[in-house]
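Record type: monomer structure entry
Structure origin: computed from sequence
Chain ID: A
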Amino acid sequence: MVALLLFPMLLQLLSPTCAQTQKNITLGSTLAPQSPASSWLSPSGDFAFGFRPVEGNTSFYLIAVWFNKISDKTVVWYAKNTDQDPSIVEVPSDSFLQLTNDGALSLKDRSGQEGWNPQVTSVAYASMRDTGNFVLLGADGTTKWQTFDMPSDTILPTQVIPCNKTRNKSLRARLDIDDYSSGRFLLDVQTDGNLALYLVAVPSGSKYQQYWSTDTTGNGSELVFSETGKVYFALTDGTQINISSGAGIGSMADYFHRATLDPDGVFRQYVYPKKANAGILGGETWTAVSMQPQNICHAIVSDVGSGVCGFNSYCTFDGTRNQIASCQCPPWYKFFDEQKKYKGCKQDFQPHSCDLDEATALAQFELRPIYGVDWPLSDYEKYCW
């Protein structure tokens, strides 16, 4: 009789439901950049939290969450120092991250100097979840802190960013695709109920005028990335403003999804096939299925700030489906930095002398047309009429 009772209990322990039980990260667990334990995985292995080498400088590391099963390990969250100091947390290879025995998550260097912690106490355990959310929890299972509440430049399915009554919640674009410094664009979930995109000054972070918004002042509630893959802004009256339709974008079962405020100022929703050779939407790469605004080159028209591409340059598209902004210099100008073209262009000719007589000076100037380019606030025509 005892054997008969034990047998069904054994079957229950081996069932798929129990095998998928959430794995917890216990107190005392430690990560180090160059050790076998450099990250904590979600149960499915889809996501990882831990140390990621900085592109172009593998001697330093980010504290980050990334897609773990795809080739480029796309980062979806990275630690910043504080809201007041949004610089990235970048540490040398001799650092370590520990969920301490007294219930804190602490990043320290070899000397024991603390470089970052999320300022929460009484943590009982942590969890890297299959949603991409890294969570610190109390003994009763309540959430003490989570990456979903502190977004960087990306949101994921099931993530919600509510309108806060005391301060704006925002996504801040990176400075460049491989530079995680705070960039030139901001997606603000504002205290007044509006969702808006802003051009911002670097490094101060001061906002210039908005170049896209939902125009929902007094009515906005929260930015939602639903579990079905739809991104929308929920209003207090129960209606929704679709940021993406959710239609024809690939199922959640077959594709990874993310929505990112990219370095060119566009908020794009992307999909990536979970299985090799299954990418009907563009192969084994991230493919944009929606974007706001639709044409970033036309969206930013401002008397202040440097626009999408910096001073003395103009904006085009790169010709791909993702429509990434591409910056170009006019004739006789060149980029300040070929690797960071958003910095704009400078003269590539000798400056003209002010001591020349009028006839000689005029002979040194030439007006050259550039076809297909619009100069909405600085065209020569407006000075002639």
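Annotation 1: DSSP finds five helices and 29 strands in the chain.
Annotation 2: Residues 22 and 261 are 30 Å apart (CA to CA).
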